[in-house]
Design brief:
InterPro entries: PEP-util_enz_mobile_dom, Phosphohistidine_dom_sf. GO terms for molecular function: transferase activity, transferring phosphorus-containing groups. Pfam families: PEP-utilizers. The protein has 25 helices and 21 strands. With about 775 residues, the protein is of the alpha+beta class. It folds into five domains: about 130 residues, Phosphohistidine domain (Glucose Oxidase, domain 1), CATH 3.50.30; about 220 residues, no CATH class; about 160 residues, no CATH class; about 80 residues, Arc Repressor Mutant, subunit A; about 110 residues. A seven-stranded mixed barrel has the order 1-5-4-3-2-8-9. Strands 12, 13, 14, 15, 18 and 19 form a six-stranded antiparallel sheet that branches. A hairpin with a 5-residue loop joins β16 and β17. α8 runs antiparallel to α9. The N and C termini lie far apart (about 95 Å).
């Protein structure tokens, strides 16, 4: 007796991860929580017969189901480029994402899905669409449900346009790169040994950020619709971690360069060419630039500061990151998106080594052994790094002498820096897999700057005809001590990896939401920069003295706001629009700086006051203010109080201009030293004058002559400084003429008022904050 044939009817379409010629048939099982996943694995006798359904497109939620070898995966959210899509492809598990069912039962949230146990068919023979059918007669729930109002059609249309083209205009791939590069007026994205030794300009920074925003969108646009994870609060920890990168990375990158120097920064990048199993790779170099400045965009979005805050740190950090890229590529374009998406990082000697260690995959059993090993290590790498890509690094394609090529993958499965990695004890730090492809496969291969390989057709594994596999036991194990694995070694290690992944999954599932968010943020902040810190010998110092594994106070203060619902809306929006890449203020025109500087020092001021301060004529001041107002740098205030003031943009551009002033005028430091030495004397002098002490005039003359010497020298480079001496001399004359109040009376243009303006001038010009040495 045989089972009656089952009739199916189509109920859904979605995005197919990879092509597979055979129709996939299995029983449906909806998994909503980590507890559901664990119960499924513990109670299901034949997971290989089950097609699991989940809400989000993230990888780690389904870790145990993927390791168990389920028949297929269907999600309500996500895209093939997501982590789940990547790992399903590696396992060879058919997967359709963003499926929308026309009939079925309801989840607790009101979503329509097939009932548990009904038979499903997945047609994954073509891309981009895959189709899903359900057995006729399957349960259907047509009762009305109250669900949250969906996204308005016009908003959905806008999002789809932003997914298809950056800012609705610039496409993906080589064409998009060409358009973005056509906008550049500098060579900031092209490095040479000579060019990386200088500090780049604010204009170069803005062009860098503009391209980088497109580059990130190009690599990750589809992941913006990945949706939620039932295991890990991804968007919350991403927002928190990236924000934390902004408040920490500029200082840490500076400390690295202080320790090892410019040549040392270049040498750091070069390690990607000479080592396998290293996190000094494309992704981590990319994150040094992208993560802190995306974090800056978040900080501005949250109102923590304006675009002028920390602008110098942006310039300095990107200048230093370019040095890492010089080592990485030994010159040339910085990003793989500028290189036709090719990432030939490793020295040729490594490719020769792989060829000599190559294991042929001549039969299905050997191929299955490798494929399961590759997939399970990759999945553990994602889980250990809290569902982000820091556990994976691809490079290539590297041409081989037979006309084929090699793709090289590093997977990191025992990162001891993380507290939860105690369960991975005994595993090697990294596994390296060199995958050989024969000539004439027809595969189109792309490697993104996030160290991920994508191919067309999407499933490249059937084309792999040989492998060479290695383990690196510790992050600093010498290359002479790496171990070569056989297929038998891979099978044995895979068993351990699957068991450890199960333990780690349960450990993460048992964490509180806050613990998960903080742990994920740690993988971003510490994880992005970790390999560079280790290589520079700074790990212990940063842990002990620089809060390496803690949130910066500014980030901690934003925790409730970010986790209270802001992240889910903000991160995709900033990412899809590129609005996180806020330009740094550009320097002011030379002719307009004196007037702007007067406004920065004095605050709200009249034309006459600006002219007196700057030494400009009234007509020149008026013309300068008009230009500043036209550029959005100054505005005229009317009403009860009148005058001119700088705008926030003007303050930022003033600060950018002052950096050049500091660079050009070393005499400023001498003037500041003299000022501090005399500052206490002036305070005592003012007090004595108010108390009727004698000898005031003689002491004032000595003090004024002393500060005058330093101001005269400093004014040779910054002429407006001479106005301070003129004004101090005029106030001194009034005091010597018998007007005691001209020494100390506040808000009257007294000697003390001018002295305090000079104090502010020196602090700003030197880029210093007031501290105890400055007094009051």
């Amino acid at each position: 007796m045989t089972d009656a044939p089952v009739t199916f009817e189509p109920v859904a379409q979605g995005l197919n991860v990879y092509e597979h010629p055979t129709v996939v048939e299995g029983r449906a099982k909806w998994l909503e929580t980590p507890a559901d996943v664990i119960a499924f694995i513990e109670n299901e006798e034949h997971p290989e017969e089950v097609i699991v359904l989940a809400r989000g497109g993230t990888t780690t939620f389904l870790t145990l189901a993927l390791n168990a070898g389920v028949k297929g995966v269907i999600t309500l959210q996500g895209a093939p480029e997501s982590h789940l899509g990547i790992v399903c492809r590696e396992y060879g598990i058919p997967c359709i994402m963003t499926a929308s069912f026309s009939k079925g039962v309801r989840t607790a949230r009101g979503e329509v899905i097939p009932a548990d146990g009904v038979r499903l068919r997945m047609d994954v023979s073509a891309r981009p669409q895959g189709s899903i059918s359900v057995e006729v007669g399957a349960p259907v729930d047509d009762t009305p449900v109250v669900v949250a109002e969906g996204m308005p059609p016009e908003m959905l249309e806008q999002i789809m346009a932003l997914l298809a083209n950056y800012q609705g205009v610039v496409p993906h791939g080589d064409e998009g790169d060409k358009i973005m590069r056509s906008k550049l007026t500098t060579d900031v994205l092209f490095v040479t040994d000579e060019s990386v030794r200088r500090r780049i300009t604010p204009l170069e920074v803005n062009e860098y950020l503009s391209y980088l925003a497109w580059n990130e969108w190009d690599a990750l646009a589809a992941r913006a619709t990945e949706g939620e994870s039932g295991l890990i609060p991804r968007q919350e920890y991403e927002a928190l971690g990236i924000l934390n990168c902004w408040f920490t990375f500029p200082e840490w990158i500076e400390l690295i360069e202080e320790r090892i120097g410019v040549d040392g920064m270049i040498a750091l990048g070069a390690r990607a060419k000479n080592e396998i199993g290293t996190k000094i790779n494309l992704l981590h170099a990319w994150a040094l630039a992208c993560s802190p400045f995306f974090g800056r965009g978040i900080a501005i979005e949250l109102g923590l500061h304006d675009a002028a805050y920390g602008a110098d740190r942006v310039v300095d950090s990107l200048s230093r990151v370019r040095r890492v890229y010089q080592g990485l590529w030994n010159g040339g374009e910085i990003y793989t998106s500028m290189k036709g998406y090719r990432a030939e990082l490793l020295e040729r000697s490594w490719i020769d080594r792989f060829v000599s260690d190559r294991i042929a995959l001549d039969n299905d059993a050997d191929r299955d052994t490798f494929q399961l090993f590759n997939a399970s290590t990759e999945l553990l790498g994602f889980l250990l790094h809290f569902d982000n890509r820091l556990g994976l690094g691809d490079s290539g394609p590297y041409p081989t002498d037979d006309g084929g090529f090699v793709i090289v993958r590093d997977v990191f499965i025992n990162e001891k820096a993380y507290p939860w990695s105690d369960v991975t004890e005994g595993l090697p730090y990294a596994v390296t897999l060199a995958m050989f492809f024969p000539p004439n496969t027809g595969l189109e291969v792309s490697v993104t700057d996030l160290s991920n390989v994508f191919t067309n057709p999407a499933n490249y594994l059937p084309f792999v005809n040989g492998v060479a596999v290695y383990t690196r036991q510790e992050f600093d194990t010498p290359m002479s001590d790496i171990k070569t694995l056989t297929l038998s070694d891979m099978a044995t290690l895979r068993t351990s990896i699957a068991s450890i992944a199960s333990t780690l999954y349960r450990k993460i599932a048992s964490m509180t939401t806050r613990e998960k968010i903080l742990a994920g943020a740690l993988t971003y902040t510490a994880g992005f920069i970790l390999p560079f810190v280790r290589a520079a010998g700074l790990y212990d110092e940063l842990v002990a003295n620089h809060r390496f594994f803690d949130l910066h106070p500014m980030t901690e203060g934003s925790y409730d706001q970010i986790t209270g619902g802001v992240a889910a809306e903000m991160i995709p929006r900033l990412f899809l629009t590129g609005s996180w890449a806020v330009p740094v203020p550009l320097p002011l025109p030379v002719a307009d700086f004196p007037a702007a500087h007067a406004l920065r020092i004095k605050g709200l001021s009249s034309v006459d006051a600006i002219a007196e301060f700057s030494g400009l004529s009234g007509s020149d001041v008026t013309a300068s203010l008009a230009r500043l107002a036209e550029g959005g740098h100054a505005r005229e205030i009317t009403g009860r109080m009148t005058g001119w003031a700088l705008t926030p943009e003007g303050n930022g551009s003033h600060a950018a201009t002052l950096r050049d002033v500091r660079t050009r005028n070393p005499e400023l430091s001498g003037a500041y030293t003299a000022f501090l030495r005399l500052n206490e004397s002036l305070k005592v002098l003012c007090t004595d004058a108010q108390n009727g002490a004698s000898g005031i005039n003689d002491r004032l003359e000595d003090l004024n002559a002393e500060i005058g010497k330093s101001l005269t020298r400093a004014a040779l480079a910054n002429p407006w400084l001479s106005s301070y001496q003129t004004r101090l001399d005029d106030a001194e004359s009034l005091v010597l003429g018998g007007d005691d109040k001209a020494l100390y009376k506040p808000l009257s243009g007294s000697y003390h008022d001018i002295w305090m303006e000079l104090h502010q001038e020196l602090l700003l010009s030197l880029g210093r904050e007031r501290d105890e040495a400055d007094g009051s």
